[in-house]
Amino acid sequence: MALDGGHLPFDNRRVNHSSAVDPAGVTEPVVRALDGLIVGAAASFGLSVAAVLATAFAVEGHVHAIAHLSLPGLMGLVIVVRGVRLLRRHSEPRDDAWSRARAVSSFDSQLARILSIAVPLAWLVGSAAILVRHASALHDLLVGGGFWLPIGAALWILATFAWTDACRDKIAAGLDESDRKFRDYWRDIGRPR
Length: 193
Known about the structure:
The chain is mainly α. It is built from 5 helices and no strands.
């Protein structure tokens, strides 16, 4: 085929390079991070809704007690996991993580972002519903709230910060891996085998 200035069709299979990375696989870490975040956030949101429903409709017993402990337990787990991760390795926060993820998959990144905001709101609504469910009178709510409300508020605030930072860092880790694959791909392209 003569090079007459016309456009040649690009066929990626004809590129001779020794890199094991497929160019299309460069974005795979970001997609995987978004998928993991969506699944985890949906599970946490579902657990929050289930806890509220179990608290509202279950009679006193084991299911009712588990529903009470599930939200504080989940929030505590998020805080502990985030703390352990920070102790193991702390990377600088990437403010551009969500915008760069949107460039890879607009729908998935928007869904993950919405769920990353919805989960702490579900924790807040669920915790409030559990408190209100057991307040037989306004007086009981104020007395119980005077003790439990500051503890619950601190737990929710810490869990919300831990959750949003963990979501951002999960996306950033996928972006870092994607950047590494991209650099590896272009470093090895055109080298003879």
